[in-house]
Amino acid sequence: MAKFLKNITLLLLIFASTAGISQQERGYIRKGNKMFNDSNYVAADSLYLKALQIDSTSIEAKYNLTNSLLKQGNTDEAIKNFNEILEETEDRNILAKAHHNLGNAHVNKQEWQEAVDSYKNALRNDPNDKDARYNYAYAKSKLAKEQDKKNDDKENKDKDQKDKKDQKKKDKKDKGDKNKEDKKKKEGEGGKDKKDENSEKEKKKKEDEQKKKDKENKKKSDQEKGKEDEEKDKKDQKGEKNKPQNDEQKKEKQKKAKAQQIKKKQAEQILRQLDKNEKNIQQKLIRAKMKKQARKKIDKDW
Question: What is the rounded distance in angstroms from the CA atom of residue 35 to the CA atom of residue 299?
Fold first, then answer.
């Protein structure tokens, strides 16, 4: 801002030396310039306004008032006044300074394109203005960065929109695929259940048929086995009967026969002994009974 203040001050001094201004108007402007240089901008404003009351077309008074407003931060009003001054004068020196300070106002608002245009116009009217050239380069660099950021933001925004669009399209496709898959799965499960049910029935039917067949085969097998066993027994009996006996077999057979005879004799002896024992017991009982009767009779005779 030091460069901007220098330009404003020089312009004030130039206007202060301009001829053709009434003594009273010049007095207010001179006093206003002193207040401005002392940074007493409110007092400067009142003095510039008094000068304008005397001459409403005073470019010097209006220009200096606009610079004071810019110093106080009334940027929008300053921009408005600078544009009015640019339309009211053709003096290249005034145009150069007005464009320069208009560029400063746009810098305050970070309006880089407007600042670049203002400094460019200042240099067209005063190519030797080094401060305007420096400020022009500064504003241009800021504008380039702003444009890069806008381009990046636009690219990011376009990318985000594209990503959202692609994601929406993908979600829609995924949803459609999922619905198809669910439908196919549902149909498949229904067909599978029916198939499983038919398969289970068929399996049970086969098992029942197999059980019935196994039962019939077993019955037939048992019958055949019974016949075979019966025929085998007959053959064995016939074979035993017709089979020639060797010496050992004969001896074994005689031994068994002899044992059977011994067992028979022993059984007869045992039976005879039992009969004998029974007879002895009966005789003993009869004797005992007779003795008892004889004793009782003798007792009575006494």
Answer: 189
Amino acid identity of residue 225, one-letter, is K
The predicted-structure confidence for 171-190, as pLDDT tens digits, reads as follows 888 888 888 788 777 776 66
CB 101 within 8 A of CB 42: no
pLDDT, tens digit, for every residue of 223-247?
777 777 777 777 766 655 555 556 7
Please give the Cα distance from 7 to 131 (Å, whole number): 8
Residues recorded for the chain: 302
Helix (H) / strand (E) element for 30: namely: helix 23-37
pLDDT at 184: 77
Could you read off the pLDDT of 194-218 as tens digits, one per residue?
Answer: 667 777 888 888 888 888 888 888 8
Mean pLDDT of 153-158: 79
As to burial, measured by CB atoms within 10 angstroms (0-12 exposed, 13-18 middle, 19+ buried), residue 177 is exposed
- Cα 138 from Cα 36, distance rounded (Å): 27
Could you give the CA distance from residue 67 to residue 217 in angstroms, rounded to a whole number? 125
What does CATH list as the number for 2-149?
1.25.40.10
CA dihedral 271, 274, 276, 277 (to 10 degrees): 170
| Among the listed residues 147, 146, 96, the one whose alpha carbon sits nearest the alpha carbon of residue 126 | 96
How far is Cα 66 from Cα 45, in angstroms, rounded to an integer?
9
Query: What sign does the CA torsion over 151, 155, 156, 161 have?
Result: positive
The number of CA neighbours under 13 Å toward the Cβ of 39 is 1
Q: In sequence order, which ranges of 38-91 are alpha helices (DSSP H)?
A: 41-54, 59-71, 75-88
The answer to whether the CB of 254 falls within 8 A of the CB of 262 is: no
